[in-house]
Write a sequence for this structure.
């Protein structure tokens, strides 16, 4: 369905060429200062306009319609809407029986029949990711507020050996040694940062894009996300591992075709003695990070890292073969318009958004974000 | 949590060195012929014993404790238990404060404190995957019964243009041309098949394993799964895409660190003109299959393919550095026992099981498996 | 949380004095003809204006913002919004530290702290039930379309005794006798109808209301809902019984304090020989209907009936005692405004709406409403 | 389905005359001391044997098969099984085509076809409630441990007026006056207690039972549950109100046909001035408790009270009319055996169990029970 999350739940709606797209964010704690300005900077990063991205730019203004009072969240669902403007659906009328290769045109029809809204990919449009960015920005604020801005005592729970051990803020036993270390320690700093690391197989992103523009074709890429400052112990032992939750929502981003955590596919060519990360202190810090900060599905306190494979945008002006569903005959198609040469360039803020959503939810479940924001 | 699925729901429990492991399968339609013999062949494939796998073999007898009557499912939850035998937990007592690199020992402690059952990895043990295999075998039977054994009329819904169109079995409109084709067609054939395609970076699996045995180390690998015969239209447009659901449950298999659908990470180096799969008939058959049978998160009727990266088993007898959590000092550890040199060899039946669970659930949601088995 | 349903899922949002209230309806099959006109007649019934209800009337115009294309549902989420107008929040500023007895003023503060939107009861307002009515109207259309408008063959599955038995439309075995009966039968007719059966303990509703108006007080009542035409077999054996699902959502209607199915509380004074409903034909028709059409949590094909207790509206102009939370001192409060003397009068369309939502969901799960509307 | 709960999730399985019944309890915090002895006293209360209940007594021994290590919960799922013994299914063979009035015999067949396990009501049997009792006993321990045994600072959040306000244990602002009161206060005391308040319309329970025994018939009753000590703020504003959650699971107890909270159906005959509960201090204590401790779906800190209507057990030896499904003819049936004259007598521990499950879940969600038990 179109809903995701356990205590922080999102519900997405809308179509590319309908009246609007939007999202409901349910379960956000009360008391978080929030306005549309908190959402705009990540929305700007998602927009096209840079070399290699579409030149068609929508003014993505997130209208917060509920859940805010006096500039702060109330605890009730937050509904955010983006109105659609400057829509031109004529192009799509012409090709409604001619599914574009690589798009969801045909599968949407296979699923919903002739009733599917085919204009601009309808509900399947990449435009819906603006709503994800907005929801993710709220989750980011929750994480920053509750990790970076709070002095925290975090020990290694369950490792105590002495009767005289103290309690951590979370009510867990702390061994004395760890306690004193923790008390002195400065707060954790939370950062979440994604970037394109490769396009069309090359680390020289600019030249690869220039080449693709000349070739009148689109190219794929690899985007990496790194999250620092998360406490250990997030995630569930079996079906709701951190990898399960992140990959679940990552694949709702159009064009993502693969994901790997830590060294990922490179692990498949490693020996165990190399792949295992040596543990170097009682907090679980490791020398290497092939695990990507996750063991047994649960954060280990090291940096969480993952990379996704983004396929080239399917819309290209080069001539392609497809089928006319009415006549059953093969036809040629050239997709006109202002396309993304390299859609990967727009993915980084999305990886940050979906990661923030997953971790804010897990932090709520593990009671590391309070139900009323401090 | 430890639950997965929407209409076909599984709930897993148990520990490696506890009394048992097991699973509850809820939502299986009534009337499916089922006995433990249906579960055994896939369980056999998961077991060790072959070169490159552990020489410690448990007799994995699945005891079906509920949900069956007169040899058929009743519609009520099916509970399956595997009793644990020949458990030797002494080894684990010695190392309970010394987390093994690459294992979940430390994260389990970070999450559950000193109360975690550390014996044989407890609830995090790979042994729980036997329960997944058993549940998957039920899902496989549902799929085979409802795809291969049934003559089916399947058209391309929503493509009709004439008033005189007929209805498909699912009550969807069928254009005349497609109808006659469909009526004549033989039934779909459902197959699901996973295999190891590479270990330690080599396609020569046997020699790679022999080398690893000599080196006293473990090695990773890549396992591929292919599913043929699925109808188009399975999966949801946004958060519950087929890729989302499969990857969600794939990452509950210990040692999996990456997944890609179709050409996956190779798409990141492709041009759009190459990556887009040309559609060659009205049923959506494509010339190539870079999409892995999935567009916009929804099956397109072509073969579904995905590959997972399996890291080397973390248990190795080679000496490794880690930390003693009690003393905070660095220690050396050598993990004794009969380990899997190449754990990838045991993954194929698991990929089949989790795929079958996802697709049986989606088939129920799309009403392509009836609530009472025919 | 603010989400309900399994395959037909609703997600509600909004505040009484915010910009809007609304709902997302996810999982509605594609192809259902739908416009705001389908929603309006039930919305009109919910509105005040009649004797005994508030004289403050909002123009409840449901704006369908997504999920519709060419006048039909697309299968994507349907978002419906009601804009708030003519809001006067001043009154609420005055009493924000003085919780009104019988209202959620204090519990909202206890849950969400000082961040709660207290204006007009905020997210707790009865105004949100307009969104429920709109969602319910969609569910009603699904039920009418798939029960009343379709000729159906419905047998008593599993009752066959002969090898030569035929299959029902649902692929279930039908004994010959039942088959012939079913084939000849006219279609089921679906009706859903709720009404006030008692106010302030009296069946003479008008005189009870007149008395209450004179006394300047509010009064409670009992509302009954009857649903005819549902197929047997809906509901789940354990936690998701029909009674469980209906009562779950009924208690989200403000002022409901009790529910009973069939003869309900009267059963507590009955003997078994009287309470048991005699079965009089193979379709399960019963002579009496103390069970309210539900046995073991599952519909039995008879009329489903339930009654709810509605407390008097808490807003009254009579002087009441409460506490000033700032000063801790007792204060007197008289709630001014145009109140509902008998809020029960507005409940009938709500009972119909929530029943339709539950049964449309169950019909989808039992595959009696197709995923693409015929 | 057969699953209930959000963070504390239960999954039930088993049949009356199969090998066993049982339950998986997922999400119980680690560190709770637990053995089968904690479950037995409530299980004893559910058992028959007293006057008015069945004379057939099973030895209900709850075998805890997973999730416990060294006598404490580990955080992994807890699976509890009850083996079935002394089963005599012959009686049921005779009547398998003759549905008993008032039982789920026919609806089970209508739902699952001929595959339903009809022996002793199969999965629909009241015997499964033993599993609910066991799960509820765990939830009770969690509540007692985290309410009664902990000294707590509880203020009225959000009510502060001064900059110098302090934080409560939950990180919420506390006004000075309340803070000092709270600090001095003794811990809350948690109690949960259900009892039969009426049978067959009479408060004289013993004489009503004696009369029913003479009449060879069964009788219904009303059971009340009271829960004291819960913090305010539990429950959700809309679909997951406390009333919604409790009534959802209450109706999975066989024979329950109605529920009312606080004054419930009596509210329908009250005036608002009488029904509204006067608030008498800043903690929300009320003079009366017509609301049953719940306003707007959320606990208000007062005692939570509810009552359920229990119909007479449908199994009676008196002759009843029903239908033979094979022949379609009317037949007479007398149900032999050792029946419950007054099944209500066995309901009290069940109301306590399901209430404890709901409130332990809500306490986890509101972060008032920590993820590792203190």
């Amino acid at each position: 369905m179109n809903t995701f999350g356990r205590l922080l739940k999102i519900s997405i709606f809308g179509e590319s060429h309908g009246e609007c797209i939007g999202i409901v964010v349910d379960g956000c704690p009360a008391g978080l200062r929030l306005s549309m300005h908190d959402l705009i900077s990540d929305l700007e990063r998602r927009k096209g306009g840079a070399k290699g991205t579409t030149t068609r730019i929508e003014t993505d203004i997130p209208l917060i319609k509920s859940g805010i009072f006096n500039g702060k969240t109330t605890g009730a669902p937050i509904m955010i809407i983006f109105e659609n403007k400057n829509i031109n659906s004529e192009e799509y009328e012409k090709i409604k029986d001619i599914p574009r290769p690589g798009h969801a045109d045909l599968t949407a029809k296979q699923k919903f029949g002739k009733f599917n809204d085919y204009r601009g990919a309808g509900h399947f449009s990449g435009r819906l990711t603006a709503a994800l960015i907005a929801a993710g920005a709220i989750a980011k604020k929750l994480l920053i507020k509750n990790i970076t801005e709070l002095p925290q005592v975090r020990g290694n729970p369950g490792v105590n050996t002495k009767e005289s051990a103290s309690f951590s803020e979370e009510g867990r036993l702390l061994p004395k040694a760890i306690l004193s270390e923790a008390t002195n320690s400065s707060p954790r700093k939370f950062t979440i940062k994604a970037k394109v690391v490769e396009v069309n197989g090359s680390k020289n992103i600019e030249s690869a894009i220039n080449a693709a523009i000349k070739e009148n074709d689109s190219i794929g890429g690899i985007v990496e996300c790194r999250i620092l400052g998360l406490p250990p112990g997030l995630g569930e032992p079996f079906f709701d591992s951190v990898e399960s939750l992140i990959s679940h929502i990552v694949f709702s981003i159009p064009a993502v075709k693969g994901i790997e955590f830590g060294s990922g596919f490179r692990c498949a060519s490693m020996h165990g003695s190399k792949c295992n990360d040596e543990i170097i202190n009682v907090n679980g810090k490791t020398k290497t990070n092939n695990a990507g900060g996750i063991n047994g599905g649960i954060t280990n306190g090291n940096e969480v890292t993952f990379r996704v494979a983004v396929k080239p945008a399917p819309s290209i002006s080069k001539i392609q073969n497809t089928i006319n569903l009415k006549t059953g005959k093969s036809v040629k198609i050239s997709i006109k318009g202002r396309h993304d040469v390299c859609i990967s360039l727009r993915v980084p803020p999305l990886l940050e958004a979906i990661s923030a959503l997953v971790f804010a939810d897990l932090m709520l479940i593990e009671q590391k974000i309070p139900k009323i924001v401090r």
